[in-house]
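Hi there. Long-time user, first ticket. I'm pasting a complex I've been working with (about 1201 residues overall). I'd like to know whether the download I got is complete or cut off, because the file seemed smaller than I expected. Thanks.
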Amino acid sequence: MSTLETQGFKLDNSGRRVVVDPVTRIEGHLRVEVNLDDNNVIRNAVSTGTMWRGLEVILKGRDPRDAWAFTERICGVCTGTHALTSVRAVENALGIDIPENANSIRNLMQLTLYAHDHLVHFYHLHALDWVDVVSALNADPKATSELAQSISSWPLSSPGYFRDIQNRIKAFVESGQLGPFMNGYWGNPAYRLPPEANLLAVTHYLEALDFQKDIVKIHTIFGGKNPHPNWLVGGMPCAINIHGAGAVGAINMERLNLVAGIIDRTIEFIDQVYLPDLVAIAGFYKDWTYGGGLSSQSLLSYGDIPERANDYSASSLLLPRGAIINGDLTTVHEIDLADSGQVQEFVSHSWYKYADESKGLHPWDGETTPHYDPGTNIRGTRTRVESFDESAKYSWVKAPRWRGHAMEVGPLARYVIGYAQGKPEFKEPVDELLTNLGLPLEAIFSTLGRTAARGLEASWAAHKMRHFFDKLITTIKSGDETVANVDKWDPSTWAPETKGVGFTEAPRGALGHWIKIKNGKIDNYQAVVPTTWNGSPRDARGQIGAFEASLLDTPVAKADEPLEILRTLHSFDPCLACATHVMSPDGQEMATVKVR
Amino acid sequence: MIETFYDVLRRQGITRRSFLKFCSLTATSLGLGAAAAPQIAHALETRPRTPVLWLHGLECTCCSESFIRSAHPLTKDVVLSMLSLDYDDTLMAAAGHQAEAALDEIRTRYKGNYILAVEGNPPLNEDGMFAIQGGRPFLEKLRETAADCKAIISWGSCASWGCVQAAYPNPTRATPVHKVITDKPIIKVPGCPPIAEVMTAVVTYMLTFDRIPELDRQGRPKMFYGQRIHDKCYRRAHFDAGQFAEEFDDDGAKKGYCLYKLGCKGPTSYNACSTVRWNGGVSFPIQSGHGCIGCSEDGFWDKGGFYERVTDIKQFGIESTADKVGGYAAAAVGVGIAAHAAATALARARNKTGIDAKIGKDHHEHA
Amino acid sequence: MTTTLAEQDDFEAKRHSRLLKAIYVYEAPLRLWHWINALAVTVLAVTGYLIGTPLPGIGGEASAHYMMGWLRVLHFSFAWIFAFGFVGRIYWAFVGNRHARQIFLLPITSAKWWGEVWHEMKWYLFITREPYKYVGHNPMAQLMMFLFFTIGAVYMICTGCALYGEALGIDSWAYQSFSWVFTAVGGNSLQVHNWHRMGLWVTIIFVMLHVYAAFREDIMSRQSLISTMVSGWRMFKD
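Hi, the file is complete. Here it is re-exported in full:
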């Protein structure tokens, strides 16, 4: 029973402890424990990353040119972004410049990931936090059709169309086997959509499921497959041959046409389905303003999508770069990933060992020595934990800090930083959305703000895909078909000892890889991933991470149905995998909701 | 043959009257109204869709991501019409049971009749606490769920072989499913991830023909893993001709020549990439210019560089290829022979008289 | 058999050398096998090396060339010759003279034989001035032949057949009979490629030592070697 004040939040763990493990629709790798007061308001939150695979340890001693494939397997959902970060880190270490075409193709692939990941997140991971599937069965298809046509020109909107979908769902439900939709919180008072909006969303849930598989074909064209396309240190592996004999074995006009077609359809789907749905749903939840957490205080974005190849400065990066601390939106701080005083990882509440755990380590000097030790004050036993003790070590996630601050990363961070920098591309859509909904700027520091920023960003990304496609064509037109620089392919050309850092903005936030290379092999490799930032446990000073902060002070409608908790956690799109895209969109697949 | 829910209830001594009451309760709690009760009853009395329980251990979720990419059949149709992707029993929502209790119950109700799909694998170090689910090791949950299943599908290279987290030095002792569950038929569908259409094809094969596909010596369905990528590669003609890309983005690469010299593992990888291809048949790694990295093969992470053809053999203690070890050894032997020959010549010259004397002596003896 | 080969040889050599100064050692089929085998090993080594690390690529249309195809055809053809030759050689060990059995049977329990291996070793290390005389292989050569050639041939045939089975398909006789090789290295056939290639280097080293030793002994020892494998007759110089 103790209270604690940190970062302006008041924590009190005296109430009832509710355990959500695993948190679903992010698969079984995250656990959250909260304390509810007598009014069912969350007064304490403890987020536990419940898996560790040891990629950093495994990478030691390997060929840096192979590292992208290993790191890509950190996550199959944000597939490719780790690989891109990795090849950038290696190129940074070895001083390799990539061709302009490789930059365009990489950006195209990264933006493809954005469009895909955000879309799938919204419909298949997140929507059911707002949408009641069972209520959709009671909808009038005609009303749904009217609603659909009032918000979008998307052609699939006739009453008959919605009736067919509704009948299919009905038949499914009547089969007695609800499969993925079973055991959800249907009927929970926190659901606010009218039946016709629910039917619309469920319909688009299925449409998006069909369509998402087409977006990633851009990865398949340039990288050979998806998930886990192929990359290359020094450029891209997909040779371009537009004019000559043998063009069928390379990126040719037919391939480019396929890419162009996918881009068009992606823009269409996002602008005509995703965004209108987002606005419509948000309209019913305007006054559900919870979940802001750190978003109004500490935000971090490394920036990404370099306009010019090999220029990773803020001026070249289309996604904003910078840090906001102490809630001061007037100052966006410069960031330097090579500065050992900026990004540091702490393990005082994580299951790792450092020599001195009061200090953080910069990733170049990072250590990853796992040691599972939940302490002696847990409830239950070491291998049968009922509740963790947040005053001891309680997570497999390390606690990264920027200049000592816990930071939130992700689409909202990028949009707020872009907004603070006055970039019209980010400011205008935010202002427009807020005006449409009749909300003040402060409203974006919320669960819904995160979800909205992601939607806006999906649209931004889709349109930027066209930009880089055009750029690719322009460069090819100018006679440059190069995609790879292999001058330093041979390890004998490398310095005996060197280090580098690579970064991207993964769909879920700032991602950095730090590498040290010695005698042609990896000497040390550390990845600080978005969910390490957002899902961070407490640090030595007791500062809480973004997940924990966002859950505080949220009222829960039904104590045994963690709908609000899932809603806010999902708004981060945690990268703890997303097995439940299909398996459990009801949010209950493996949930053990224990209430004490 | 799977028992219907109704069959099970009857076997357990529940009357039809109670059953119908149960159905109407279910219908009400689902918000369907009493009118839906007979339909639910009908469904429960007839053939249910096969329940599939899909567990996740240490993995990256690329298998699930791949699964939802299936173009034929569409994932939507698989989930809505072909099987029942239940984690727990359909009707438990109405009863409001906890999910863990639901798992126990589905194991009883569909005992021996549900398919367990496993993505990822259990780690054995730290008492299994490198993968914690519900506050306890994933391994326990895997064992419990496997106990009453009909068959196990090991999705991807994690469940099949161990994959990246099991790469040297395998810090968590990530262990493939077949090494911890030894009493169930296991169908391995390896790949990092497997091809979407291969995943759905394996499932639909099992549902359509009601049998486990014929497996190869390593437990993979022969229909998709019976041939090497090399055997059906559209660049095979270039291999046979001796036409290779020598380095990335060179003339050979632009002409779509064979990627063998860039380390392509197609000749040792059993998968359907070169035939089924990826993402609705759009391409596959080799078609997009990068050699196969052999992601469906056991231990592919530890078989040397992805860009080497003659790769490291770990067993030498140090990482070295046969060509390096052999080349150095042959050179050393060559030098040794030359030195030995020189020494021989020297000794022979020095002992010329001695040898003559010896021969003379022998002659003398013989005489 | 209580007397060692060396004793027998010694006895025979002494008896014969007084009368003839030459003994018929290697019968015709064995000699024929040796030289065919030498050719096969050479072709296998060269083609094998090039299959693993091909020559710089050829331009033009794929249909106009069959470089790797021919290399593989040659490799497989001579592999058959090598393999059947080896089977024939085993047959000859049963029906041929006692020298034909030498490379298959090592008298490893005989201390005297090991002593002679040691003696031969000293001869190569210039410690001993003079080698013993042998009609067949000297014990050192016998040991080397067994380790490098006999074991080596079995190893290369097994790994080679496994890889050949891959090309023929998993339902082929070769795959069915030899896929245990893949299992033995952990399931990934890439490792078998690598180990088979290691065998290539062992073969190269063996050939180097074998040829050197034959020439050296021909010059330095007290009996003929190279001409023996041509004519079959062991000539004694003293």
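A couple of notes from our side: The first helix of chain B runs from residue 5 to 11. Chain B touches chain C through 64 residues (CB under 8 Å).
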